[in-house]
Specification:
The complex is a heterodimer. Chain A is of the alpha/beta class. Chain A has one domain: Rossmann fold. In chain A, strand 2, helix 3 and strand 3 form a beta-alpha-beta unit. The model of chain A has no long low-confidence stretch (mean pLDDT 95). By secondary structure, chain B is α/β, with parallel strands linked by helices. Chain B has 2 domains: 245 residues, Aldolase class I (TIM Barrel, Alpha-Beta Barrel); 36 residues, no CATH class. In chain B, the strands form 4 sheets. Chain B has a 9-stranded mixed β-sheet with strand order 1-8-9-10-11-12-13-14-15. Chain B has a 3-stranded antiparallel β-sheet with strand order 2-7-6, with no helix packed on it. Chain B is globular, with a radius of gyration of 21 Å. About 9% of the residues of chain B have low confidence. The chains are: A alpha/beta, B alpha/beta.
Chain lengths: 307, 379
């Protein structure tokens, strides 16, 4: 049984980007619920015991639909409050260009939180190939050599090939040759990318931003197909987190007149493949789901995943 | 960079910039590199690609190779060198070679195409297949951000070839199909200056772009990696049939054509496969098309296999000859007698080679000096 927590903001001004403090409220509630720990530091330490923490973002769609800076800032603040040094937090993506275009301030040399792309001169990819199934890739040195643990912080969106782009698909941004693994709706490649030892062993937490969801026309930005869900999906099981993300995506597609991903020709089979590899739970009946609604004052109440 | 080094950058004064390239792989650039100032990492090309169509529901479909990648905004095709930017498909590698050398034409290999001449040889990052034995995977399996590129316009390539007195320009090392636009424009400009262009390819290209390209080329060498579809599927990550179709198209066009097969132990080295391959070439392309069998060295994803035994290559040679192929060569066996060209009529030594060097050239024009047999090729 895997546990997934969905936290939804029901403040007074829905359908807008959330602020750092609002994200912090959601993250705090989610970590408490996921870990069962009342102390936030202990909750964070349960998944991220120490060392250098990576934060893999998804900045493909630039500022329009990427991991929000406010979310990364809120998560950083929680990690600092849990005892991590700010300089031991590394926000990363495959390129400096993408990070900058999403609003992040690049930083490898100054004080404070690090922020760097794999393509920066100081990083690059592993010298040796990492392999799983048909996937043979060089992996970002940020993941293999710099960070001890990683938090995967993608955005939930439709993907023209994979169907679902959430946590697992985001790890394509950690390898040197993602373009080679989009065949057959990324199945089983997406599962095997996440089965690469360096990815599997360091990814400890998935935080999917589902505040504003690109429910169709992704992975780039398509303004005609945006819907607000106002939530985060959090789990230490990367497959289960994506499975719940899939439910949200399909729901938003349905209420906005889009066919299922299966009917649209991009069935999401890689979740089942991932479960077969032992990466987590794809069967929704085996996922313990907790949905928390949070108002502007931080009051929590139980909610439903799909409304 | 190790973590300690990265973290120590805190006080080293370095400043992160919006760099577009990493210094991942040592570039395959010889001393010519010194002719250019590499300087700071450059932007990628944004030239619009050719041979694609916009899809009614958004996105584009690439038509440069048989994959026909359908690519939505901000995504790339399988090759990694072409990107959809707002439903305009762009080549990221136009004018951005990552490899530049002057090679003997024999290195391509071309054995019947102006023997002893030199070729200014270039490549960009990217490839439309993913051969497990790739010898140049550092560039072919990379995206252009991951290689160290230089800025070199088509005219600058031509000027360099003229300056270095290389009569040939070779598009090679990775897969030139994926830098089609760059290759096409160089070849076109090169012809205006009397320079020949040769394409070294896997032949995994669509019919129409090839048709348009051929008039600007002078020779094509195709890696026919196997005659088995399954091998293409599992080892090459491609398809055999389109390659065979393009080979026939090339032959019919009249362009000079040579074929190379890398013989990989246990994967494509049976007698039956050698026979089938040679027979297919003879029937569909002709017995006088030079056919090279090359020795494999453990590389990339096939480091577990040994080099091809010389005896296996000699067996391939014998089978191909017995099938009627007239010009069969063994590659990567420097000093072996099968590197040389013999008259199929009287067996006279016509061109003697030691590695890439020509040590004897006995052809008279394109005739055997002893029996006057016409030798096919461009001499």
């Amino acid at each position: 049984m895997s546990k997934v927590v969905v936290v939804k903001y029901i403040g007074d001004q829905r359908n807008r980007p959330l602020t750092q403090s609002e994200y912090k409220m959601l993250l705090t509630a989610a970590l408490h619920t996921l870990s069962g720990q009342s102390d936030l530091a202990a909750a964070a330490r349960r998944y991220l015991p120490g060392g250098v923490v990576g934060m893999k973002t998804n900045c493909l769609a630039h500022r329009l639909n990427s991991t929000p800076l406010a979310l990364a800032d809120a998560l950083t603040a929680i990690l600092v409050s849990a005892g991590f040094k700010e300089k031991d937090v590394v926000v990363w993506e495959r390129s400096n260009r993408e990070l900058a275009s999403a609003g992040f301030t690049l930083n490898v040399s100054g004080a404070g939180r690090r922020c760097v792309g794999t393509d920066a001169n100081v990083t690059g990819y592993s010298d040796e190939f990492h392999s799983s199934g048909e996937v043979n890739s060089l992996v970002s040195r940020i993941l293999t050599e710099i960070v001890d643990v990683n938090v995967n912080v993608p955005v939930l969106k439709d993907h023209s090939v994979a169907g679902l782009s959430a946590g697992m698909k985001n790890m394509y941004g950690a390898i040197n040759n993602p373009n080679k693994y989009h065949g057959n709706n990324c199945d089983p490649y997406c599962a095997h990318v996440n089965n690469l030892e360096s990815i599997k062993s360091k990814n400890r937490l998935t935080v999917i931003d589902a505040v504003r969801v690109q429910y169709n026309g992704g992975p780039g930005y398509a303004e005609d197909y945006l819907a607000y869900y106002n939530g985060l999906v959090i789990s230490d099981d990367p497959v289960a987190a994506d499975r719940i993300g899939f439910e949200i995506l399909e729901h938003l597609r349905a209420i906005n007149g889009q066919p299922t991903l299966e009917r649209a020709g991009r069935p999401v089979r890689y979740l089942a493949s991932a479960e077969k590899l032992g990466l987590g739970i794809a069967d929704i009946n085996k996922i313990e789901l907790r949905v928390i609604m949070i108002d502007k004052n931080g009051r929590e109440s139980a909610g439903e995943l799909l409304e | 960079m190790k973590r300690r080094t990265f973290m120590s950058c805190l006080g080293c004064g370095a400043v992160a910039t919006v760099a577009t390239q990493t210094r991942l792989f040592p570039p395959v650039i010889n001393s010519l590199q010194n002719a250019f100032a590499l300087g700071e990492p450059k932007e990628l090309s944004s030239m619009e690609a050719r041979h694609y169509k916009k899809l009614p529901a958004g996105g584009i479909e690439c038509g440069i190779c048989p994959r026909h990648c359908q690519v939505t905004d901000l995504e790339r095709g399988y090759c990694g060198s072409r990107e959809n930017q707002g439903d305009v498909y762009r080549t990221l590698v136009y004018g951005k070679p990552c490899s530049l050398n002057i090679d003997p034409i024999e290195k391509k290999p071309f054995f019947h195409f102006y023997p002893g001449t030199q070729a200014l040889s270039l490549a960009t990052a990217g490839c439309n297949v993913n051969c497990k034995f790739c010898q140049n995977w550092e560039i072919s399996q990379s995206r252009p951000e991951q290689t160290e590129n230089i800025d070199l316009s088509p005219q600058a390539v031509v000027d360099l070839a003229v300056q270095r007195q290389t009569p040939n320009i070779a598009y090679t090392y990775s897969e030139p199909t994926i830098f089609f636009e760059y290759m096409y424009d160089i070849a076109e400009a090169g012809h205006k200056h009397g320079l020949r262009s040769v394409m070294v390819t896997g032949g995994y290209i669509e019919q129409e772009p090839l048709r348009l390209l051929i008039p600007h080329l002078d020779a094509i060498k195709v890696d026919l990696k196997s005659i088995r579809e399954d091998y293409y599927k599992t080892i090459v990550n491609g398809e055999l049939k389109p390659v065979l179709d393009r080979l026939v198209q090339m032959k019919k066009s009249g362009i000079w054509l040579e074929i190379v097969t890398l013989v990989v132990p246990t994967l494509n080295d049976t007698d039956a496969e050698f026979r089938d391959l040679a027979n297919w070439v003879k029937v569909n392309l002709g017995a006088d098309v030079p056919l090279h069998f090359s020795q494999f060295y453990p590389q990339y994803l096939l480091k577990n296999l040994p080099p091809t035994p010389q005896a296996t290559l000699e067996k391939a040679y014998a089978i191909a000859r017995s099938e009627g192929m007239q010009y069969v060569y063994l590659g990567n066996l420097p000093g072996h007698p099968t590197e040389s060209t013999y008259c199929p009529q009287c067996n006279a030594m016509l061109i003697e080679r030691k590695g890439y060097r020509i040590t004897q050239q006995n052809l008279v024009g394109n005739h055997c000096p002893k029996c006057q047999q016409v030798i096919p090729g461009r001499f």
